[in-house]
């Protein structure tokens, strides 16, 4: 089977990226999955692809795939730690968010207990929806840190 120079370059590049990801502490299987994701993107985007640094772009695609998988795993872990919504009473919810400052407790309650949208919370509190997202992200990060300690 005769390979083109581009195919040979892609295979070599894939091996190099796997090694670079492993050097960053990523497991080999996860690094190989990320490189496979980068190959898929190349197949889809190749006809219209116009990047100046192809190797750097390839590496970044693979790294982003690893980071996305890590974030997904963290969300799944956090979700597993939360009680079922049907068993959540106002008192148990208050206990869950008690470590947060009062303003963050209010945001978390409006979003996750009452189900308000970012826009609705922003309108109620006279702040931008983007600010609501940022403040909720900080509250979730603080809660995650405290739950991981226990």
Automatic annotation (TrEMBL):
User: Ranges for the RNA polymerase sigma-70 region domain?
Assistant: 15-75
Q: Where is the RNA polymerase sigma factor 70 region 4 type domain?
A: 93-143
**Which InterPro entries does the record match to this protein?**
RNA_pol_sigma-70-like, RNA_pol_sigma-70_dom, RNA_pol_sigma70_r2, RNA_pol_sigma70_r4_t2, RNA_pol_sigma_r2, RNA_pol_sigma_r3/r4-like, WH-like_DNA-bd_sf
Under SUPFAM superfamilies, the record lists: Sigma2 domain of RNA polymerase sigma factors (SSF88946), Sigma3 and sigma4 domains of RNA polymerase sigma factors (SSF88659)
Q: Please provide the record's keywords in A-Z order.
A: Sigma factor, Transcription, Transcription regulation
NCBIfam families, sorted? sigma70-ECF
Q: Which family does it belong to?
A: Belongs to the sigma-70 factor family. ECF subfamily.
> What's the protein name?
RNA polymerase sigma factor
Q: What is the lineage of its organism?
A: Bacteria, Bacillati, Bacillota, Bacilli, Lactobacillales
